[in-house]
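Project standup — Tuesday

K.O.: blocked on the structure for the chain from last sprint. Re-posting the sequence here as requested.
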Amino acid sequence: MEIQRGFRSKLKSYLDISQEFTLELQISGPVQCSYCCMAVTPQDIPYCSDYIVWSGHTSSPKNEIVYQDTELGALCTINLPLMPNQIKKLVFLINIEDEHVMGDITWQKAELKQKGKSIFVFQLQGRDFRREKLIICCEIYKKGGDWRLAALSCGYNKNINEIVEEKKAISTSAPLGLGTTVDATFFSNKPIKSKERRVDLTIKGHILAEPFATEAKKKQASVKLLPTKVIPIPIKRKKKNR
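H.V.: unblocked you, prediction finished:
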C-alpha cells in the first residue's frame, strides 16, 4: 500500500503488532547519508543511549530494535511487545553528512514489511525537498494504547548536534551518579542515595555526534565510541559560624 506524506494510522489495522516487523529506509542520489532509529519518551527526549541504534550500535538491550546497513540505506527490525513502557515513540532519522542537501537526492523511500510482505511504501522525490540536511522520515508512536505510524519526511536545516542540544538528551542507563548529556543542565533520573549534595560537572559534547559523523561509518574494532559523561563530585556542606 502506497502512502503519502502526512499519513497516520493504527498499525494493528494492517499488521500483527505482537510479531516483529521491519522498516527499511533508502535514499538514492549523489549523497552520503547516515540512518538512525531513536526511542523517545512522552516528554519527547531520547529515552536512553542504549535505545539509539545506528551503524555503530546495532541493537537495543533486548533486541527491541535491531539495525542493519543495506546497499541503499538501513533496515530496522522492530519488536513492539518487548519495548519498555517508558518509550512512547520511535523516530527514524536520515542525516546528510557531505556538502549535499535533501534537494539533491533522486528519491527517498521507506517501506514497512512483515514476514516479507510489503505493508506500507512511502516515497518522495528530490524535488519534494529543499535545503534540508536532516529529516525525520517516519515515526512509530503510541497514542491511546495503540501503536501508530506517521509518514512525515519533515526536514531541518540544522544538523544533528543542534537538534540534540534542543532536546537535552538524557541517558537512563548509565551507572549511578553518571549519565549522558549535552550541557550542564544534566540531572540523573536515578535516585542518588546520599546525604551529600552533588555538583555535576559536564564535559561538553553531543550524545548523537558519533552516529552521524563520517568517521563513525568506519567499522574499527579497536575503537570504541563513548558518549559524553558527567562526573559527579560530592561536596560536603560547611557549617556556618553562628
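K.O.: great, moving the ticket to review. The chain has one helix and 14 strands. Residues 27 and 190 are 39 Å apart (CA to CA).
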